[in-house]
Amino acid sequence: MRPKLLDLFCGAGGAGMGYHLAGFDVTGVDIEPQSHYPFAFVQDDALDFAAAHGHEYSVIHASPPCQFASIMFDPTQPEKRQEHKNLIPATRAVLQQLGKPYVIENVKGARKHLHNPLMLTGSMFGLPIFRDRYFEIVPPIWFAPAVPRYDFEPVPINGSSIRYPLADEMRTAMQIDWMTKMELRQAVPPAYTQFIGQHLLQILEYRSKEKRDD
Residue ranges of the domains in the chain? Predict the structure, then answer.
């Protein structure tokens, strides 16, 4: 049987798909309805659900809202950023209480709020995008799968001053074929979490073997 993974603040399921491809049975939770989420879905407050049901899962992934740290805000309106709360500490507190292997993902601007984060970006997986994301992983991964490269013209998932790509180009670049353009702009490429998921499966298998040997 596949081990169960809880995907908190799941959005439309980019991270969830990576864990599914790695070998997990995925359930997503989000406070907003997610009609395109490709796996089992619960509409609820993510941290409330985790506190009540997290013990039922082998691994927990969380992507708390990144708006508090996003570079997309107009710098002349700093009050807009302050409208958004940093949920990383509260998320970590819930996950540590559960005692399961966990992942907290966020954007570059939130890096200082994450413990020993691993940075993953598109070129490490052969994707034509600049999409750096930071992952607090417990137990940790100490090495990225490849050296990042930025010596190419990326597909600008969030648009740029030069061009806005078509949705199909974005889907191909992210290896996501089920999302709308707006959902793609919020998504984690599945390749990132497939890599992390493979690591976490090895951890679960090692722990299971230790218990059998005892």
Answer: 4-213
Burial of 16 (0-12, 13-18, 19+ CB in 10 A): buried
Strand order across the 118-120 sheet: 40-43, 25-30, 4-8, 59-62, 102-106, 133-138, 118-120
Helix (H) or strand (E) holding 127: none
Q: Give residue-wise pLDDT tens across range 144-171.
A: 999 999 999 999 998 665 778 899 999 9
Residue 50 CA from chain centroid, whole number? 16
Domain 4-213 part of CATH 3.40.50.300 = no
CA dist 109 → 7, 56, 118, 121, 190 (Å): 22, 32, 14, 15, 21
pLDDT tens profile 80-112: 556 679 999 999 999 999 999 999 999 999 999
DSSP state of 168: H
How many whole angstroms separate alpha carbon 13 and alpha carbon 73?
24
0.90 exceeded by pTM? yes
Task: Pick the closest to residue 127 from 110, 146, 141, 109 (CA basis).
Answer: 146
* pLDDT tens digits, 119-128: 999 999 999 9
User: Long-range contacts made by residues 41-49, C-beta under 8 angstroms, separation at least 24?
Assistant: 41/10, 46/8, 46/9, 46/10, 46/91, 47/8, 47/87, 47/90, 47/91, 47/94, 49/6, 49/8
